[in-house]
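thread: overnight batch results

M.L. [08:02]
morning all. the overnight job finished for the chain we discussed friday. pasting input first so we're all looking at the same thing
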Amino acid sequence: MKEILLLCLTRFGDLIQATPLLRGLKEAHPDARITLAVLENFTGILPLICGYDRTFVFDKSEAARRISCTEDPLSAYRHMEEFISSLEQEHYDLIVNLTTERTSAYIISALKGSRVSGITAVESGQRVIKGLWGDLHLQCGTGRLQKVQPD
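M.L. [08:03]
and the structure it wrote out:
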């Protein structure tokens, strides 16, 4: 594996709890570049987290501000598109979505990845769970999501 992406766009605790995952991925794939995609308000904790090589930051508050406070609500869409475009620069060997919300599922579905673990969206827009990481969400009662066959 050369490129790994972890997406954490909703809960601060998910990022903190992902530190063993980051360590394990780095041990298993020491030559891989591990990328974190996080919310802007999570950046303060990043210096305390080990095991990743670079970050992409999404300012969700800015997107919300653009929707409600500008004369051009499509600028919020362009803001999201810029974030996704920055992530699309790579083909990832593994993408792990640490969150369960729709926005992250749609972002994951737009990216190129050999393996995806977590929640993603299919062409119809339905969210589905892929890989072993998704099994955790099913066990914890996330509900309303369909499990698909492993890659």
